[in-house]
Amino acid sequence: MKSNFMLKCIHVLQDPRILQNLLMEKYPSLFNDEKYLKNRYAKIFGKELNLVHPTTFNEKLNWLKLNDRNPLYTTLADKYKVKKYVADLIGEEYVVPCYGHWKTLDDIDFSALPDRCFLKMNHDSQKGVLIDKSAGIDRQLLRREFSSKRRKRNWYWPSREWAYKNIEPCILAEQYLEDGKTGDLQDYKFWCFNGKPVYMYVTNKGAVIKENFYDMNFFPVNINHGFPRQSPEFEKPTGFELMKQLAAKLSAHIPFVRIDFFEILGKVYFGEFTFYDWGGLQPFADEETDRRLGELLDLSSFKNTDGGK
User: Fold this and answer.
1) Is a pLDDT exceeding 50 seen at residue 14?
2) Distance separating alpha carbons of residues 240 and 290, to the nearest angstrom
3) Which CA distances in Å does 170 have to 61, 103, 122, 152, 158?
4) Of 139, 167, 174, nearest to 151 (Cα)?
5) By the 8 A CB rule, do 49 and 61 touch?
6) Given a cut of 60, is residue 309 above it in pLDDT?
7) Which long-range CB contacts under 8 A does 10-16 form with residues at least 24 apart?
8) Fewer Cβ neighbours under 10 Å: the N or C end of the chain?
9) DSSP state, residue 193
10) Other beta carbons less than 10 A from residue 151's beta carbon
11) In this structure, are residues 186 and 204 in contact, taking their beta carbons and an 8 Å threshold?
12) Residues 213-235 pLDDT 10s
C-alpha cells in the first residue's frame, strides 16, 4: 500500500499547479510580482485578476502595486520616518512622540527611556511591546518579539506591497497611548481617493477584529470587508471633522491610501499610511461592493490603462 507521502507526491506530479502553489508559499521571491499576484488572487477570489482593464477595488489595488511605485511611499510606510513627514505637513502635535530608534535591542539604553513606553518595528504591522519599568523589563519576551528573523523579514514579499520593500528595519520607542478606559484602543481608518476621504471604518485592536464602516457624516454604511460588525455602533469621535481635514491633506495626490488616526482623551494622533488595504486580497461580502468601490479609484492619470472605463 502506498504511503500518504507517496500519494501526495504522485498528486503533485500529476498537477503542476499544486507544485507551483507550494513553491509560491515557501519561496515567494522565486516568482515575479505579476505572476505571484495573479496566482494568489485566483486562489482567494476564485477568478482571474484583470490587470489589463481593472475595474474592482481589489483589482485596482493590485494594479497599483505593480504600476505606482512612487519612492515617497517607502518613507510614508516607514513608521519611524513618516513621523517627520507628517509633522512637517500637518503639525507635530498630531504625531505620537518618539523617544528614539535603534537597529537592535542591544543598542537600546532602557535607563534613558520613560517608565512607560511602547516598542515596535518600523517596517511591519505586527504587535509591539509595552515597556513598564514598574513591572520589570522582560528581556526574554523582547528577544522573541524583536528577533533577528523578524527584523530581517521583508513584508513586501507576502502580498507584493511595494511600499514596504525598501524600508530599512529599526526598533522605535514611542509614547504609549492609553485613554484610561477599559477595552481595546480604537482605530479610525479613512479611505481616501485622490485626496478625498469618502468612507472610513472603526476597528479595535483586540484579538477579535470588528469593522464598522461609515460615510463622511458618520452614518453607518453597508460595507462588509469580511469581519463582523460591532454592536452597538461605535460612538462618533469628538475629533471626527478634524480627522477628515487631516486625512485630506495627508492623502493629496495619492490615488488611494488609508489614513489612520487614534483619539486619546479628545486629542487626535496620526496612526499610519496604508496603500493597499488588507493587501488588496481581502474579499468583500458581495462583489457589487468591490465593483462600486472600484469606480471611486481613478487610474486614468496613469499610462497604459483606462482605469476600467
Assistant:
1) no
2) 26
3) 27, 5, 6, 10, 20
4) 167
5) no
6) no
7) none
8) N
9) E
10) 16
11) yes
12) 999 999 999 999 889 999 999 99
